[in-house]
Amino acid sequence: MVRSFLLLAAFFGFTGVALGAFGAHGLKDKLTPEYLAIFQTAVHYQQIHALALLGIAVAVQRTPTALLAWSGSLFCAGILLFSGSLYLLTMTGVGKLGIVTPIGGLAFMAGWLCLGLAAWRLA
């Protein structure tokens, strides 16, 4: 589990930086300001949760619990659903993809809740 979360944190961190640079340099003349802001929001949340995954990996190594595993898994789901749907929305213009975004947001919140519960249960 630790290795998986570390690898995912590295992957999401790397791709977040790459996508952020792509948005700032490659898309600024191709997207409307509104869509560029949406793209930047996706990058922002991806980066925050890549770092959170790194923290989860460290926590799981010290105290392996189901709640921490759920937290990391929910952060991954949140990145894929929240950020992923926003990336697709900005690149395709298909507005219906925005329906998926709140599900990703709920996954992020559930991940933070699981992390909080895991911390609460520590001795």
From TrEMBL:
<feature type="transmembrane region" description="Helical">
    <location>
        <begin position="36"/>
        <end position="60"/>
    </location>
</feature>
<keyword id="KW-0472">Membrane</keyword>
<dbReference type="InterPro" id="IPR006696">
    <property type="entry name" value="DUF423"/>
</dbReference>
<keyword id="KW-1133">Transmembrane helix</keyword>
<feature type="transmembrane region" description="Helical">
    <location>
        <begin position="67"/>
        <end position="87"/>
    </location>
</feature>
<keyword id="KW-0812">Transmembrane</keyword>
<feature type="transmembrane region" description="Helical">
    <location>
        <begin position="99"/>
        <end position="120"/>
    </location>
</feature>
<dbReference type="Pfam" id="PF04241">
    <property type="entry name" value="DUF423"/>
</dbReference>
<protein>
    <submittedName>
        <fullName>Uncharacterized membrane protein YgdD (TMEM256/DUF423 family)</fullName>
    </submittedName>
</protein>
<dbReference type="GO" id="GO:0005886">
    <property type="term" value="C:plasma membrane"/>
</dbReference>
<comment type="similarity">
    <text>Belongs to the UPF0382 family.</text>
</comment>
